[in-house]
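User: Batch of two.

Assistant: Item 1 of 2:
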Amino acid sequence: MSSQAAEGLGSIPALLQRNAHRFADRPAYREKEFGIWQCWTWADTEREIETLALGLLNLGVNRGDFVSVIGRNRPHFYWAMVAAQSVGAIPVPLYQDAAAEEMAFVMDHCGARFAVVEDQEQVDKLIDIQDQLHQFEHMIYIDPRGLRKYDHRRLHQFSHVQEQGRAAREEFLAELKSRREALDYDSTCVMLYTSGTTGKPKGVVLSNRNIIEASKSSSEFDNLTEAEEVLAYLPMAWVGDFIFSIGQAYWCGFCVNCPESADTMQTDLREIGPTYYFAPPRVFEGQLTNVMIRMEDAGRLKKWLFDTFMAHARKVGPAILDGRPVGAWDRLKYALGNILIYGPLKDTLGFGRVRVGYTAGEAIGPEIFDFYRSLGINLKQLYGQTEASVFITLHPDGEVRSDTVGVAAPGVEIRIAENGEVYYRGPGVFEEYYKNPESTASTKDAEGWVATGDAGFFDKENGHLRIIDRAKDVGKMADGRLFAPKYVENKLKFFPNILEAVVFGNDRDKCTAFVNIDLNAVGNWAERNNIGYASYQELAGHPKVLEIMRGHVEEVNRSLASDPMLAHCQVHRFIVLHKELDPDDGEITRTRKVRRGVISEKYADLLNALYDGSDEISTRTEVTYEDGRKGYINATLKVCEAEVVPVEAPEQVAAE
């Protein structure tokens, strides 16, 4: 038994009790509502959660029940998850933007009896699918707007459930304490569903041991304290948010800040100025795109200053950040750049106080990663999975590299199989896939080793792990040379004009690609150049836009040509797609991971055109509208050629 379990800290509710005494008057949660920040201390939080837990007992929540949680990041939802744990139930957060059918699969699979949702939109979704949910009984909502005339026999307002909990305190308090004290390291803490890149999502069962041990070791690794400030804005259904906003927050006792809405997130980020920040690559890519767009609109002097000092920052910024030797003149010039450019830019981005920043979820382009570190932001990469309670590897301070994901996290062991697949084991390894013993057995062996599905190797120079790509995506070209699409895609996505890219080439003699324009960046360019357009489709197919995309692809090709391992992965032909890849159409996951199989099948005619020499291709594509209706769009797309840099083919390629 670990020391914290022995001390009675073997569950999240136990950590809440500790924090309510140790950090009673320190802020635990903030939420911006109607433009004003509301604050709850740890003592307040403990009272809010206890009254909700008593209300759940009053509603009939049993030990082992599953409670779905659906909505944007709000203190109430974090309270709901801990309240559910307090009564021995298991929280199951869902993606708030998921279609009703996706929610139906998850809630039916786990047999959820209860759901805590945000507003009328989510209530309507669950009402639409309630016939498919045979065990579902009660729904609790936070925002009452539009719900006054609904049937409230099984529909309850969040605040009313808390009021009923207060009224029934004497009746249920002993039962609540009994259930809370029965929780231990082996109790289930949460069930999180995978994104389902290759099939139906799987329910990952994580215990208190998994969450608390992972939170403890990672917090100690980065010296996190109760003084940290984080912004909770990532989907609650994602393991990263659960670890940062509940696991580490409850272990350290720091404050979780919830923005008012997605639209105000950037403003709220600047106001809070987090000290500890996490974002997947797409968020950093989007912020960089916005910076580049603004600089295109800047005056000549301002743009010259930006370009001059950013060039210097890329040269010496990371070295200064890591404490490596840098000449006095370079340090002086960097300090001047910090006054004129880097400092104001960090404040604009909301990163002025960031002490530790992480990116994970998928590989980030080296150029994007280096851009942020050159500003003096201590951005690091971690490699993790839902099944690992996030942490498999971490970057130690002073050893940060854009081409690696760091060293094994504390307590984690890593090995590389003969086929290059990465395996790990440690205290954060999940218990099982719910109701799926076959997948559990194929993923985790009897000794606790978990197959990641990723291909990688240890860097001989520094012992860091390098991830090449998803093992199932890494393949061979027709001549046997390595094909790693994600590496090329990340280089393409460095350009602000490119939102998404999908590269093909497995078993082919050359690589090709689909490209999505970033409507924000390209639309801004079109406006500056007096180019009118009526739709995404029209702008994506504009001849000048195609030329810009060609320039980006050819620049990536020149970069790849200098990499002997992947020089042959240069993109020969590409198509700029007529629509954005969309999770509602099943083309990418809710966490924006590409579903290659779906895309290859759905756009088979476009893929064939890339390889059969066609100059253009007419296509008809099914799309899903915001209200769930299906429709079709027709388009004739240009197949673009890109110049490649000649590279010498190897004299002999190994057969294996």
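Item 2 of 2:
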Amino acid sequence: MNSKEKYDVICVGAALIDMIAEVKRHPSEDDEVFVSNLTMRSGGAAANTAATCGRLGLKTAFLGKLGLEDEFGNKIKKDFIEMYVSTELIKYSEKFSTGSAYVALNNEGDRRIYAHSGAANYLSDTDIRESEISISKLIFLSSLKNIKPFIKAATIANRLGIPVILNPGMLIIEQGINKITSLLKTIDLLILSEREYKLLVEISNDAGIYEIFKSSKEIFDLGIKYLIITMGSEGAMVLDVSNYEKIDPERVKNVVDTTGAGDAFSAGFIYAYMHSGNFNFKTTVKNAKMGNYIASQVIQKLGARSEIPSKKEVQEYFQNIK
């Protein structure tokens, strides 16, 4: 780490409070279901990834916007500190309160999410400062509808030679590739779900692995070096402009809650990236396997930050990846 670097990764995006309602089934139109349990947890995609990175032992900071001294924001900061995440880069809004998400989770672990971004979506490009971006080895961007601060952060990182990873989420993907091209051109590595990928490049939901690889040319033409597509119980795919590899899923005894699986995958990938020492196709595949492992652990408990393996378990798994 040179004299300027303070963090392994800065995670930029939303920090929200998740209200998780456990139900036997999801309601149909004009229907009502009984909530057997209701819990409140800190969430938000970038915040979840930051928290997991912190627990895995990486020097991590979160950069996003909260309401000024409101109850939800205070809980989020307290939880960050408990997960070893720095809060010094957080910005505050006097006008908007901290955001929240309402999650309905059924017995099979399937979820429905209604997100109110609140202050998070008012992070602006003026909140992004070169003096802050410059103190990290890696910039991770995730799940804000407003992409202007992401473009600013990535542009600064590009100029300084700092790698940038984007895990966009549906709030960005649903804007369409033409509207987010300016962001994608600043990214080194793109992580997204199979559903998000197929929507982004406009291919059929039935498209197979080879068709996915053929359609990825559109992504690599933008200058992105690596593409990772998470596929849930089917594992993941790693692609570059001339190669692709399918990664088998980890064996899971019992899926309880898939909320945050993608965020955990990103954290596992970042952990492995920081310990790999280089950035090529072979190591990117290895790093993605680590992402699969962390995600497989998290989905076995309720909440996006539960069941994170110990540092020792993570180190042993990483050393044994082939």
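The chain has one domain: 7-27+34-320.
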